[in-house]
């Protein structure tokens, strides 16, 4: 058994909120606590509600009423609460938000100022006819106006839905056109990588194309409202636990995005559990996550206000004006919990940034990573390049649940390549193709019992047919998440990639992350993408690599890649074809678009290229298709 990369000090474990909660529940260790949280789900979630001090005008007699199937379970029926009230419970002079930009501009709002700003915008929305259940759409960068807009919307009981300003008009219409918002909030321009992008005409085009939009509010309008409007108190609309709060979107790479509706209480309770217990957030913390308003991690980030901490928002490129820009931000803002993606950590290593040599980072205690599996080399790089003792938590869940199935734990050691534990209250398992649980080996990541943050439905899916098809078709009555995963000997998990991207040469199922782990540990390789290509009544693995600037794919590098994969994975993992490309297509949230490339190399038209951040990258795979085929 390999030694852990980090083991928390006993005194840190003892004073963690996870340990306090465990003692309160009468459990001896985390395994016992997790087992109890599944066996006694109603009691567990009621403990979370009480421990985290959920603010509600009416509590529920029962935390859970089972109704025969996964989706029909009722969580906290009879409870009445307001999401914004829980995030704005603190109203003092402590800093709530720091909004930082890549050009060095910085704006702060205290909790008292954030409350007043929310009240004034909420009053404006009410005057414009926005009420409970109405949708407010936002096309915004990750700044203060996005948080104020969400809180004002939630305070009314209306529904918030956002995407980032780098979306094209078609991408925005694919989303907002389905949900029929009453108000659109947008920016006129945004900065990225030292360039300014004017998007005002795009916003006007969306407004003109979506007939339900009655008004377009620019970020400048919000600033004036906040500065000039008469003093207001937030009129907090109390709503049911499962009333809608957010509409989030699937990536939409195979067609129009699914509009996933999340409820008020489930989102709040799940985020409080993850922030307080699994991350250990307190009012003394400063929480950062590099995200856009089009990724669920933005929704996860802003819920940090419910724990009374300071949020650092960032608008811009993480590598501008220099590769260590976000390391500067950690020191400048004394960030304690730094959230990012596996792609960023990999790119940081490739850029030869060694933060422990160039920065103080004494405030930092936890690094969170999600978006794609974190490779073994990424784990090693973090512990080589950052100060010792930092907790690295690879977390995994998704837009579908606006939270995590597996994540970190301040009581447990960190093992290379592993997510530390299954989330409390989440009945996570791994099934084989026949639906039988797997104690060992790779299979489908599933959740066998309902949880509060399951979607309350899809928009415009009145009979729930799309919802059931998305999650319950593979294993009736069991949530199939679409990830290929396995348990580890330490009680953790490894996620090997998306199930629909699994490679199957010779009938052996291989997760793409198993190959990326080996290839991206090679210094010459910046990133990689691999897909399965139908070939002579079987499939073969085709690997595409982006190399460091100025390098070409020669016979020696091909041999090194194949040898690394053969020696550290298996001969079956070795690609039949390796090709160099200049760029890899990604979704708007930064995930590799393996399915789109698979379509291209099979001569099929990808389902929805408007869902891609860089659809032009697909053109090079047309050429590769003829060479590979």
Question: Can you characterise this structure?
Answer:
By secondary structure, the protein is of the alpha/beta class. The protein has a domain at 502-628: ANL, C-terminal domain (GMP Synthetase, Chain A, domain 3, 2-Layer Sandwich), CATH 3.30.300.30. It is 32% helix and 23% strand. The protein has 21 helices and 31 strands. The protein has a seven-stranded mixed sheet. Strands 8-7-9-12 form a four-stranded parallel sheet, sandwiched between helices. The chain has a four-stranded antiparallel sheet with strand order 24-25-27-28. Helix 14 packs across helix 16 (376-385). The chain is globular and about 70 Å long. It starts with 9 loop residues before the first helix and ends with a helix. 52% of the residues are buried.
CATH topology of the domain at 502-628: GMP Synthetase, Chain A, domain 3
**Biggest sheet overview:** 7 strands, mixed
Strand content bin: 15-25%
CATH superfamily of the domain at 502-628: ANL, C-terminal domain
User: Order of strands across the biggest sheet?
Assistant: 6-5-17-16-18-19-20
Helicity, as a percent range: 25-40%
Q: What's the gyration radius in Å?
A: 24 Å
Q: In CATH, what is the class of the domain at 502-628? A: Alpha Beta
Overall pLDDT level: 93
Q: Which stretches are low in confidence, meaning pLDDT under 50 for 5 or more residues running?
A: none
Examine the secondary-structure arrangement and name the CATH architecture of the domain at 502-628: 2-Layer Sandwich
Number of strands: 31
Number of helices: 21
């Amino acid at each position: 058994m390999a030694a852990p990369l980090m083991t928390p000090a006993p005194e840190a474990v003892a004073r963690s909120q996870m340990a306090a909660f465990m003692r309160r529940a009468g459990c001896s260790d985390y395994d016992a606590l997790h087992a109890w949280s599944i066996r006694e789900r109603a009691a567990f979630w009621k403990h979370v509600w009480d421990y985290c001090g959920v603010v509600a005008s009416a509590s529920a007699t029962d935390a859970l009423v089972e109704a025969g199937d996964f989706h029909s379970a009722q969580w906290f029926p009879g409870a009445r609460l307001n999401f914004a009230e829980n995030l704005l419970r603190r109203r003092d002079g402590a800093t709530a938000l720091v909004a930082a930009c890549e050009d060095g501009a910085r704006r702060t709002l205290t909790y008292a100022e954030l409350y007043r700003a929310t009240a004034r915008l909420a009053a404006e929305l009410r005057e414009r006819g926005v009420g409970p259940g109405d949708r407010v759409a936002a096309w915004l960068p990750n700044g203060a106006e996005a948080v104020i807009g969400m809180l004002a919307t939630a305070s009314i009981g209306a529904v918030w839905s956002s995407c980032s300003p780098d979306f094209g008009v078609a991408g925005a219409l694919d989303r907002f056109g389905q949900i029929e918002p009453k108000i659109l909030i947008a920016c006129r321009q945004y900065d990225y990588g030292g360039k300014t992008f004017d998007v005002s005409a795009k916003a006007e085009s969306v407004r003109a194309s979506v007939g339900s939009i009655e008004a377009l509010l620019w970020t400048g309008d919000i600033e004036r409202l906040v500065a000039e409007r008469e003093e207001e108190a937030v009129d907090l609309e109390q709503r049911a636990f499962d009333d809608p709060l957010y509409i989030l979107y699937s990536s939409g790479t195979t067609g129009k995005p699914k509009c996933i509706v999340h409820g008020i209480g489930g989102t709040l309770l799940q985020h409080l559990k993850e922030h307080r217990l699994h991350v250990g957030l307190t009012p003394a913390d400063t929480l950062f996550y590099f995200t856009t308003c089009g990724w669920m991690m933005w929704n996860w980030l802003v819920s940090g206000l419910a724990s009374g901490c300071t949020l650092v928002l960032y608008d811009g490129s993480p590598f501008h004006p220099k590769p260590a820009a976000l390391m500067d931000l950690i020191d400048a803002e004394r960030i304690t919990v730094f959230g990012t993606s596996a792609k960023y950590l990999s790119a940081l290593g490739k850029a030869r940034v060694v933060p422990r040599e160039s920065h103080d980072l004494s405030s930092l205690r936890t690094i969170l990573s999600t978006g794609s599996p974190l490779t073994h080399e990424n784990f090693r790089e973090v512990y080589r390049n950052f100060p010792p003792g930092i907790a690295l938590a690879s977390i995994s869940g998704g837009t579908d649940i606006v939270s995590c199935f597996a994540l970190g734990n301040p009581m447990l050691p960190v093992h290379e390549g592993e997510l530390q534990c299954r989330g409390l209250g989440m009945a996570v398992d791994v099934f084989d193709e026949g639906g039988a649980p797997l104690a060992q080996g790779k299979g489908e990541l599933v959740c066998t019992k309902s949880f509060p943050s399951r979607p309350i439905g899809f928009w415009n899916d009145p009979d729930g047919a799309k919802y059931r098809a998305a999650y319950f078709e593979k294993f009736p009555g069991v949530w199939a998440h679409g990830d290929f995963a396995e348990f580890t000997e330490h009680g953790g998990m490894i996620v090997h990639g998306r199930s629909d991207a699994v490679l199957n040469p010779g009938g052996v199922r291989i997760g793409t992350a198993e190959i990326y782990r080996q290839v991206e540990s090679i210094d010459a390789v910046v990133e990689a993408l691999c897909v399965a290509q139908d070939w002579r009544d079987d499939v073969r693995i085709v690997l595409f690599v982006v190399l460091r600037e100025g390098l070409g794919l020669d016979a020696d590098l091909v041999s090194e890649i194949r040898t690394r994969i053969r020696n550290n994975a298996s001969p079956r993992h070795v690609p039949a074809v390796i090709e160099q490309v200049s760029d890899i297509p990604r979704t708007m949230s930064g995930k590799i678009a393996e399915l789109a490339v698979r379509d291209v190399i099979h001569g099929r038209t990808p389902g929805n290229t408007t869902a891609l951040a860089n659809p032009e990258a697909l053109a090079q795979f047309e050429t590769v298709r003829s060479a590979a085929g």
